[in-house]
Design goal:
Layout (H helix, E strand, L loop, with lengths): L14 H12 L2 H4 L6 E3 L13 E6 L3 H12 L6 E7 L2 E10 L2 E8 L7 H16 L1 H12 L4 H9 L5 H6 L5
Parallel strand pairs: 2-5
Antiparallel strand pairs: 1-2, 3-4, 4-5
């Protein structure tokens, strides 16, 4: 969805979205990652974040070592910087975590276009469900998240989805 292609929409959002926009802008996170089509995903963009929600930034790299070098050069000085190079279901993945202002940031990179990555696909499906189900459903998701339940399991629980909530959500159809 084009509305999530840049972080500008955050400027008009609720207080935590505006604060996220300011942190990302002040620390030039999206600018430093511009060669990797960075996209903010997760709960903050769709307004179901809680106090502990992080800034999930998806990236697509074509040369893993260069991406690792960019992450290291750009963010090593940030509080709590940790870099992990691993595999998810056979897909080479690089993840960096660190803190900017009051947020934990997680940069997640794979050699897969960001709009095809699970994180983006989950966010878009969740956004559509929230639009369809309305404010009470949104409040219930936030309540469950406040109790420590992860986002996809919370959606699966409320929607009555069975099996792996991450996979089941990808198959869910609204309306």
């Amino acid at each position: 969805m084009e509305q999530f292609d840049s972080i500008d929409y955050l400027k008009l959002g609720h207080l935590r979205q505006v604060t996220a926009y300011n942190a990302l802008t002040r620390h030039k996170v999206m600018e430093l990652l511009s060669g990797y089509t960075p996209l903010l995903a997760g709960t903050i963009p769709i307004g179901i974040d809680v106090d502990t929600s992080d800034l999930d930034i998806l990236c697509c790299w074509h040369d893993k070592e260069t991406f690792i070098n960019i992450l290291t050069d750009s963010f090593t000085g940030k509080k709590g910087f940790v870099l992990k190079d691993y595999s998810i279901n056979g897909v080479p993945t690089v993840k960096a975590n660190f803190y900017i202002d009051s947020f934990e940031a997680e940069i997640f990179g794979q050699n897969i276009p960001v709009k095809e990555q699970y994180g983006y696909r989950h966010m878009i499906i969740e956004h559509k469900i929230l639009e369809y189900k309305g404010i009470e459903f949104r409040k219930e998701i936030i309540r469950l998240k406040s109790q420590g339940i992860k986002t996809e399991p919370a959606f699966a629980m409320l929607l009555g989805l069975e099996g792996n909530p991450y996979e089941a959500l990808l198959d869910y159809k609204t309306g």
